[in-house]
Amino acid sequence: MRDAVDRITPLGVMILALLGEGDMHPYEMIRLMRQRRDDRLVTITNGTLYHTVGRLERAGLLAEVGIDREGNRPERTTYSQTELGREAVGEWVRRELPRIDHPAEFRIALAEAHNLDRDEVVELLGRRRIALAGVLAELSAGRESARGRQVPEQYLLEVDRETVMLAHDIDWLDALIARLERHDFAWGQPMVPSARYLEERKAARQ
């Protein structure tokens, strides 16, 4: 499993997670991801998506389940998430959620965090918070030391910005963890698809 997870790209994780909502063909995947503005998180092109689907199939993380020949449209192969693929999504999110050295991957892990149990997400985010607090303390100490040595402020602008950003990130994490612990909002995949989800799928198939 670890080798499979190590080979999965961020786009691959998003494709596998999408198939967790239901079987679909690559054209529908692209349309749905763009409708949801997932291209904010990862570059989505026809070529990279089809290439990624092929790699995931060879790795046994998704499987072909049929071919759509509707109307005069070209044949479209439909894929399904395998059990190995479902497990790989969870493992990838589990690995990336507490890390602070992969900011791009963290955004995707956060977007797919609902694939894990709520309590596990709280624990993983708590580990992330500890790591961020350590970096903030080290950075703040270095900044104060530099000011004590009368380093000109112009040389500390980036450090000041990073300190503020880290402090805000920690505050945001604290608030999120508290909301998760209070069960302020639903978690996990809904048992019954929402009307919005059904409309998204209908639009993506057209």
Plain-language structure description:
This protein has 206 residues and is mainly α. The protein has two domains: 2-90 and 189-205, Winged helix-like DNA-binding domain superfamily/Winged helix DNA-binding domain (Arc Repressor Mutant, subunit A), CATH 1.10.10.10; 113-182. 63% of the residues lie in helices and 6% in strands. The protein has nine helices and two strands; from the N terminus they run ααααββααααα. It has helices spanning 2-7, 10-19, 26-35, 46-58, 83-96, 103-111, 118-148, 157-182, 195-205; strands spanning 62-68, 76-81. A two-stranded antiparallel ribbon has the order 1-2. Helix 3 crosses helix 9.
Task: Describe the SSE topology.
Layout: H1 2-7, H2 10-19, H3 26-35, H4 46-58, E1 62-68, E2 76-81, H5 83-96, H6 103-111, H7 118-148, H8 157-182, H9 195-205
Quick rundown:
It comes from Microbacterium alkaliflavum. With 206 residues, the protein is mainly alpha-helical. The chain has helices at 2-7, 10-19, 26-35, 46-58, 83-96, 103-111, 118-148, 157-182, 195-205; strands at residues 62-68, 76-81.
